[in-house]
């Protein structure tokens, strides 16, 4: 579905130069559309409005900044919460499965009893704690390094939505587990790296930063995440 033709000033962004735009295209009726041209770079504001969603997804997987700007600024996607919960469920399932594999009891009755326990929900809680700590570390770093970029509550909310959307790579955990093979640990490591790259690109596009600062924020987020986990472990929690 194409976005609205007209919007308030600055509602859209040019996917090439990140400049503000009032419209993505102009509708001349009878199916005749003309893509708007950016006043800053003289290129189409958003060429992706003519692309198939599959092409847009492929460009997003390739972590192209233009695709991220299209998704974050020029579309009305509102699946952040559902995507976050589903990704956490995928991660919790993977951890629960590894915990189940670590128990060397193969009694079917015992496995059924094991499945009814609360280990899966505990894994979900741990995954939620780690992701929350990771995001808090990122926000603290960015607020400290670029306070002018996060002045309003809406800035924090928009960045949070961008980070939640950029964790879509965790959905790959399920097929990696289903099609288990000797290279599964390597695949899981690649998925982790891909998610971090996506997070970096989301931060860069949302705040219009260079490549270094987003990676610095992610690095601090990982440190904060591991620090919180170690703290709870020292308190006696089974994290």
What's the short version?
The protein has helices at 53-61, 65-73, 80-102, 108-115, 119-145, 153-165, 173-178, 184-207, 212-234; strands at residues 12-13, 20-21, 25-27, 33-35. The protein is mainly alpha-helical and 239 residues long.
Characterization of the model:
The protein has 239 residues and is mainly alpha-helical. The protein folds into two domains: 12-73, no CATH class; 78-235, no CATH class. The chain is built from nine helices and four strands. It has a two-stranded antiparallel ribbon with strand order 1-2. It has a two-stranded antiparallel ribbon with strand order 3-4. Helix 1 (53-61) crosses helix 2 and helix 6 runs antiparallel to helix 8. The longest helix has 27 residues, at 119-145. The chain is globular, with a radius of gyration of 21 Å. The relative contact order is 0.10.
Q: How many separate helices?
A: 9
Poorly predicted runs: 1-9
Radius of gyration: 21 Å
Helix content: 55-70%
The count of DSSP E runs of length 2 or more, i.e. the number of strands, is: 4
Mean pLDDT: 83
Strand residues, percent:
under 5%
Label the overall shape.
Answer: globular
Question: How do the SSEs run, as a string of H and E?
Answer: EEEEHHHHHHHHH
Lateral strand order in the biggest sheet: 1-2
Largest sheet report? 2 strands, antiparallel
N-to-C CA distance = 44 Å
Number of domains: 2
Question: Structural class per helix/strand content?
Answer: mainly alpha
Function: Mediator of sterol homeostasis involved in sterol uptake, trafficking and distribution into membranes.
Membrane topology: Multi-pass membrane protein
Protein name: Protein ARV
Subcellular location: Endoplasmic reticulum membrane
């Amino acid at each position: 579905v194409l976005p609205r033709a007209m919007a308030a000033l600055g509602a859209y962004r040019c996917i090439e130069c990140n400049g503000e735009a009032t419209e993505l295209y102009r509708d001349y009726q009878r199916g005749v559309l003309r893509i708007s041209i950016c006043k800053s770079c003289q290129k189409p504001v958003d060429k992706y409005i003519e692309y198939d969603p599959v092409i847009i997804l492929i460009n997003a997987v390739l972590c192209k900044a233009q695709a991220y700007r299209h998704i974050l600024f020029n579309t009305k996607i509102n699946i952040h919460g559902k995507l976050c919960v589903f990704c956490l469920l995928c991660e919790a399932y993977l951890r629960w499965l590894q915990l189940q594999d670590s128990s060397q009891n193969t009694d079917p009755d015992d496995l059924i009893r094991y499945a009814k326990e609360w280990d899966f929900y505990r894994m979900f809680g741990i995954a939620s704690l780690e992701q929350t700590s990771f995001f808090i570390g990122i926000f603290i770093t960015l607020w400290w390094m670029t306070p002018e970029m996060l002045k309003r509550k809406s800035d924090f909310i928009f960045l949070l939505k961008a980070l939640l959307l950029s964790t879509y790579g965790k959905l790959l955990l399920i097929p990696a587990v289903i099609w288990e093979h000797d290279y599964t640990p390597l695949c899981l490591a690649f998925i982790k790296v891909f998610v971090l790259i996506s997070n970096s690109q989301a931060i860069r596009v949302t705040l219009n930063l260079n490549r270094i600062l987003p990676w610095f924020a992610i690095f601090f987020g990982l440190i904060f995440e591991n620090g919180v986990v170690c703290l709870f472990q020292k308190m006696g929690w089974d994290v």
